[in-house]
Amino acid sequence: MALQATEKYLSDLLTGNPRPPHRFSWYSHPSNSMSSPFDSQRGLVHLPNGGEVDTEMKLCPYNAKRNHNDSAETNQRNSKHLAASHSEESEPLSDMCYDALLGPIGRNITKLENSGSKAGGRNRRGRKKGETKKEFVDICGLLSQCAQSMAVNDIRAVTEALKNIRMHASPHGNGTERMAFYFANALEARSNGTATSLYASKHPNNISAADIFKVHWMYINASPFKRVSAMMANKCITKLASGGATRLHIIDFGIQYGFQWPCLIQALLKRPGGPPTLRITGIDFPEPGFRPDEQVKATGLRLEKYCKSYNVPFEYKGIARKWESISLEDLEIDRDGEVLVVNCLDRLGNVPDDTLVPNCPRDSVLNLIKLINPDMFIHGVLNGAFNVPFFYTRFREALFHFSSLFDMLEVTVPGDDKQRLLFEEMVFGREVLNVIACEGTERVERPETYKQWQVRSLRAGLQQLPLDQEIVKSLREKVISDYDKNFSVESDGNWMLQGWKGRVVQAVSCWKTKNN
């Protein structure tokens, strides 16, 4: 969700209606923390047209295997264009926005010279000449001891442990030292009772729109996780709609900015006989304030403009409510000649579970999907086991999870990369703070493992569909070709799993209603 906050701020700065930095908040509204994750967007940066979108490859703005021959002059020109584009209102919400963000941007966008690539190991782990070899310190052990002391409310031991950890933690160190820095911050905030105010802090004023843009795409290019999940979903939908259907209805739980759908639209354009009528019901959590549905409406307008530019018949309805309160009637389903797909990538983990309220909202959403009775339900999950009420158990699982993520950036992005530093602070650091220091409704990061979601889905009356092995194979080949060798795409049962060094980070599977 912190990554969504980064994207939200970029969007607000680069649209015709930017918000002043002091009005931007990085947190869910405290009075309704689960109802407003950071995914409002009111427009996109206007970039030079990237040409035809390659739906097989170009979900992210440029390939992780970049063209390193781009000139510095082009980089500077595009950076200036990014910084100034929010004032260019003569071409609002143009189709070039989506083409640029989702097309072959490697030729046009600012080159992130130090971002991750398949080369891996670009972050040289060897010591610089003359650098003294550091004494090995079990930082994870120190963090665990501190958490144990906190679990039994031994404040003196916590204070001493934090002093020791601070000696070996730094936001500018190696991956482990950076992880320790943000975990120490979270432990200190929990000890001092300052978690809520820290998590509710505003976006720093000294970060430019261009920097935010670079931060976001640095992660996309260092890691295939978001990209591959969306490609998996789009390929499955394209195959389902290839049988000559005249209408395709997608109910998207967690539509965010609609970045996933232009690539699908391009694929539908290639269908024999032309594209079907595309109908999207975009669902997201309401924003705080007087316009809770502002973001979902803005997403619909962008998608409508994009479809119009390619003569694709398009219908849209936006819903901004708590997901468990949505009824079947709200979705206005028409099954007469309509292929119906439910899509939800990595967002059900932000819906409250039965540890917060007796009637589990997550199960309510799955029961609604059963009533929808779609031809396919595509479910992507963040694979994590740190959604437990017991602090020390949650801490240990979060430590394992974030150790992998910090190590991933350590291997794929140089240590002095500015975008990496910002990303670790604004995304990983804030997520760690929320998981470790926040409780109750203020804790919005609540992932479950894909096996736990399997049990929930089966209990709701859903049935898993077989994986399309051709799609999985093609995505695996893309990851091998374009990303570090430590990334993996595997399968377990009917789940496609993405991982780093053997640890599963994300999973995707397809479902339908049992006995459909």
From TrEMBL:
Location of the region described as Leucine repeat II (LRII) in the Swiss-Prot/TrEMBL record: 298-330
Region SAW: start-end pairs: 437-512
Gene Ontology molecular function, alphabetical: DNA strand exchange activity
Keywords carried by this UniProt record: Transcription, Transcription regulation
Region annotation (Leucine repeat I (LRI)) ranges: 137-197
Basic residues bias locations: 121-130
UniProt short sequence motif VHIID, positions renumbered to this chain: 248-252
Signal peptide feature range: none
Annotated region (Disordered), positions in chain: 65-90, 111-130
InterPro entries referenced in this protein's UniProt entry, alphabetically: Recombinase_CS, TF_GRAS
Similarity comment: Belongs to the GRAS family.
Protein name, as recorded: Scarecrow-like protein 14
Species annotation: Cuscuta epithymum
